[in-house]
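In response to reviewer comment 3 from the previous cycle, which asked for concrete evidence that the modeling workflow produces usable outputs, we include below a single protein chain processed end to end. The sequence was submitted unchanged, and the resulting structure tokens are shown without manual editing.
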Amino acid sequence: MRTIPKSPESTLQLLLFIDDRPKAQDLVKQVENFLQQESDCLSELQVINVADQPQLAELFKIVMSPALLKISPLPRQTIAGKNLLKQLANCWDNWKQQVLDQLPNYPPELAQNIDYMDEVAHLSDEVFRLAQEKAEIEEQIRFKDRVLGMLAHDLRNPLTAILLAIDTIEMSGDKIDPPMVSRLLKHAKNKARDADNMITDILEAGRGTNSQFRTQRQKIQLDQLCHSVVSDFYFSKCLEGKMQKLIKNIPTDLPPVYVDQEKIRQVLINLLGNATKYTPEGGKIELTVMHRTAQKIEVSITDNGLGVPAAMRDRVFEERYRLERDNGADGYGIGLSLCRRIVAAHYGHIWVDDALGKKGSCFRFTLPVY
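The workflow returned the following structure tokens.
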């Protein structure tokens, strides 16, 4: 930033915005020479390199350089472009008249004005940054409150299932056969693992969307994993409680996949849990697995619930997003976003469509073949 020599009585204040191009310095000399020749109107020029002080260019809404801005007397006026000197000559008589009209109200020195405005620009940026940080901190606090709610409500499901299994064993006494005891104990173990996975999911969600999602992959048979999930004792009780019917279409000749088994189990649990939650009593849920191509297997879970509006189908997978109608329901909007992150970590894709030919939703995701 530099200025030409000025007089205390300067009344025409100009800012010349330039960049680092060599021709810019030639323009500065031309403008300075013009002002010195027009000595009948006292003026003050300050040269600003937009590369050094971009905040001033933004403050004065300068969108191109070179540009010459008259800031006093008011009103402000900007001329810009390659023929800037010619434009200055055309404006000069009008600007001189504006100076005469405002005498003897001399403005403060230009350098003081610019220093003040520069400080205002920096403070505005700092206020904006602090406002963003405040919004992020407030969202983190709200999310922690929701997590506490989740720990108080959603974790009751696996804990209730574990207690149900233990109570069944205790109350039945000698009347229950060993295979059923073994099944109930296995069920309690699975539910304890689900609770552990849920806590892991909450911690993963708290790490944010940009953090790396860790997986421990192995070669597995997806059909066996699907049967294991749907035969779960507690899931069966949920279906029974709402008199819902589960239709399975799981081929036995599926190729193996290379995945983190517990993560994909959690995706299935989350999607099937949503299906049972939003499907009305007496409704149907379909689980279908298809070998779509030589490289992909597709899993689809279809319900005949309320469905997802077309405009919201991408947003339901966003971090902590919930449909407005679901704000009063259990859950805190991290399940589908975690499903998306898990599937993406396995180089797959997840999306939602209308249930074909009927009311409801069809959630689909793909996994690569081993």
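Residues 1-8, 327-333 have pLDDT under 50 and may be disordered. We consider this sufficient to address the reviewer's concern, and the full set will be provided in the supplementary archive.
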